[in-house]
């Protein structure tokens, strides 16, 4: 039976069942893969988000997938599991574009760490990204494209949705729906979070 309210451990375990490497969100220009940065699934700490110039006060989302456009910028999909409306409002405040831009920081050790990937056995994350020719080392890059999915307990979900209008980068789901990742309906919903969904046709670059 699906859970109508996930605790922190249940949320992390659920997100670890989502893909480590994916093209569910069509990559910009069709190149590269989205790599899971959170929850942590190896020995090395995953990437974090912060405001420009901030090194101590960083945000570690419950779920984070990163697509590196190049060593100079990245796109991110964030998943935040919220237990209360107060918790939801706190997490929403971290991503308001009007208040600041975001920087993604990931260590060279995290990029070097080997992960399992389909059809390729094991390889370091920087190679699994298919965005770099060589290991770029530690990265601290601006976030170009942001999408955030907030998971809300079932009992609060309908009440909240009736009274609020999401901003353009925000998406919302009940806790129980998050467990249906492999369903066609959920995957159609998630694909809307790609920047590719904002263009009628995609331009391919040689």
Strand-helix topology:
Elements: H1 8-16, E1 21-22, E2 34-38, E3 48-50, E4 63-70, E5 73-81, H2 85-93, E6 103-106, H3 108-112, E7 114-117, E8 121-124, H4 125-128, E9 139-152, H5 154-163, E10 170-174, H6 175-178, H7 184-191
Parallel strand pairs: 5-9, 9-10
Antiparallel strand pairs: 1-2, 2-4, 3-6, 4-5, 6-9, 7-8
Explain what the structure shows.
- By secondary structure, the chain is α+β, with helices and mostly antiparallel strands.
- It has helices spanning 8-16, 85-93, 108-112, 125-128, 154-163, 175-178, 184-191, and strands spanning 21-22, 34-38, 48-50, 63-70, 73-81, 103-106, 114-117, 121-124, 139-152, 170-174.
- The strands form two sheets. Strands 1, 2, 3, 4, 5, 6, 9 and 10 form an eight-stranded mixed β-sheet that branches. A two-stranded antiparallel ribbon has the order 7-8.
- The mean pLDDT is 89.
Report the structural category.
Answer: alpha+beta
> Strand count, sense and closure of the main sheet?
8 strands, mixed
From the spread of the alpha carbons, the general shape counts as globular
Question: Strand percentage, roughly?
Answer: 25-35%
Count of DSSP strands: 10
Unreliable stretches: none
Radius of gyration: 17 Å
How many H/I helices?
Answer: 7
